[in-house]
Specification:
Blueprint lengths: L4 H16 L3 H17 L3 H14 L5 H13 L3 H11 L6 H17 L6 H21 L3 H25 L3 H17 L3 H16 L9 H17 L3 H14 L4 H18 L2 H22 L7 H18 L6 H20 L3 H14 L10 H20 L3 H10 L1 H6 L13
Helix pairs in contact: 1-2, 2-3, 2-4, 3-4, 4-5, 4-6, 5-6, 6-7, 6-8, 7-8, 8-9, 8-10, 9-10, 10-11, 10-12, 11-12, 12-13, 13-14, 14-15, 14-16, 15-16, 16-17, 16-18, 17-18, 18-19
């Protein structure tokens, strides 16, 4: 979808004029035309403000405003609020097209909430939406609408792929879903859809978790294709997500990683996305920490080297703590606590390091992690080992032993023996 900045600015001026002159119904008509392009541009705070203003001002707002309100909230890391809105309006919606859109957004909200136990329900919702769009396409005599419904079927397959990839760790099925989605996007000439599906396939090739598909070269090729398309179409949401994946892919090449995460940070700043800024700072801190570690400087005062790392983490942590219901934000927060603890241990500040690790451990026990995904348990065990090590150093071996015994199930899940007092680091 190509976006015309001049047209968008003109519509923004028009809605402002209508609201200011006490004509909310006319303003709502203009906002309706702005919702999709603002979402594509990644201008989520602006979109949310406009939609909520419309809902408050219009006597009977169209349900589409609630759909985009939920989408903006979800993009801003507030999936719990998004889901509440969707559940509130789902029984009022009779229009089949809106019902299908709601099913897609509900699935996306549940994914961001980390509702792993509801994977089959989410897949069923996507399949139901796929069927609805198929019926609508068959019934419509409008060629444009038929194309739109077909494209939305591609979005349903894309959503299913997400669940197979992230929730069910089934890359084979995920790749099939993405390939089918991409074929549909190619058929309807949706450049952004093709790029999104390509990026997701790149993610699977970039993941060592899926050895049968693991190919960093292939992943880089897919990511670069997606990035070029998103930039050409000014699809900032896609640009942002692809820069992030490129940064992760190039972690073994610090200068490249810093470049991609730096671009990610600047774009997130320009879009007013505080969560994404915090995510970027977490990764920039990790890369810088690893670069300093590789240099292996033998200095008495290490603090100047690590000050920028501590600054980045310290800026990221309070922001990420705001997004308590977004599992990806909370995972990043746990990682921040771990990294802060590591840096403080290098600086021989064991007291503050222990505080950082304990904070990370507390967060790893929050309700959002109750599904005990292997990656989340692994984060907790890493934290536990550091805490046990520090407690043993500070003459609290009994506390360390009790802590490890309390988390014996975590070690068993990872098929690891809980370390004894003598072999805590091992």
């Amino acid at each position: 979808m190509r976006l015309n900045p001049e047209k968008i600015n003109s519509l923004l001026e028009a809605q402002y004029h209508y609201f200011a002159s006490g004509q909310p119904e006319q303003a709502a008509t203009v906002v309706d035309k702005l919702m999709r392009p603002l979402y594509a541009l990644g201008r989520y705070p602006e979109l949310l403000n406009l939609v909520e203003k419309t809902i408050e001002s219009v006597e009977e707002p169209d349900n589409r405003f609630y759909i985009y309100q939920a989408r903006a909230l979800m993009a801003l890391g507030r999936p719990d609020e998004a889901l509440s809105i969707l559940e509130l309006v789902q029984y009022e919606i009779e229009d089949q097209e809106l019902k299908a859109a709601l099913l897609i957004d509900k699935g996306a909200s549940l994914r961001r909430l980390g509702q792993f136990s509801r994977a089959e329900e989410i897949i069923h919702d996507y399949q139901e939406a796929f069927g609805i769009y198929g019926e609508l396409a068959a019934e419509s005599e409008d060629k444009e609408l038929r194309t739109l419904f077909k494209e939305n079927q591609g979005t349903c397959l894309f959503g299913e792929g997400n669940i197979y990839q992230y929730f069910l760790a089934d890359p084979d099925t995920a790749m099939k879903e993405y390939a089918q989605a991409r074929a549909i996007f190619e058929e309807v000439k949706s450049a952004d859809g093709i790029a999104d599906a390509t990026k997701q396939m790149g993610e699977i090739h970039a993941s060592p978790q899926f050895p049968a598909f693991y190919s960093p070269e292939r992943a880089n090729e897919f990511f670069q294709q997606a990035l070029a398309t998103h930039r050409e179409n000014n699809y900032q949401k896609g640009v942002l997500e692809t820069l992030y994946q490129l940064g992760r892919l190039h972690r073994a090449e610090p200068k490249e990683a810093l470049k991609f995460f730096g671009e990610y940070l600047e774009l997130a700043k320009s879009l007013g996305l505080i969560r994404e800024q915090a995510i970027a700072k977490r990764h920039l801190a990790e890369v810088r920490f690893e670069m300093i570690q590789r240099e292996q400087r033998d200095q008495v005062n290490l603090e100047p080297d690590y000050s920028s790392v501590i600054e980045l983490i310290s800026e990221a942590i309070p922001v990420l703590r705001l997004f308590t219901n977004d599992i990806w934000s909370q995972r990043a927060l746990v990682n921040c606590c771990y990294l802060l603890g590591e840096v403080l241990m290098v600086l021989r500040d064991d007291v503050r390091a222990l505080e950082a690790f304990k904070l990370g451990l507390r967060i790893s026990h929050e309700e959002i992690f109750e599904s005990r995904q292997t990656s989340d348990v692994r984060r907790r065990v890493r934290m536990l080992r550091k805490i046990a090590d520090l407690l043993s150093r500070t003459d609290y071996p009994s506390e360390a032993e009790a802590l490890l015994a309390e988390h014996a199930d975590d070690f068993r899940q990872l098929e690891l023996p809980p370390p004894s007092r003598e072999h805590v680091e091992e």
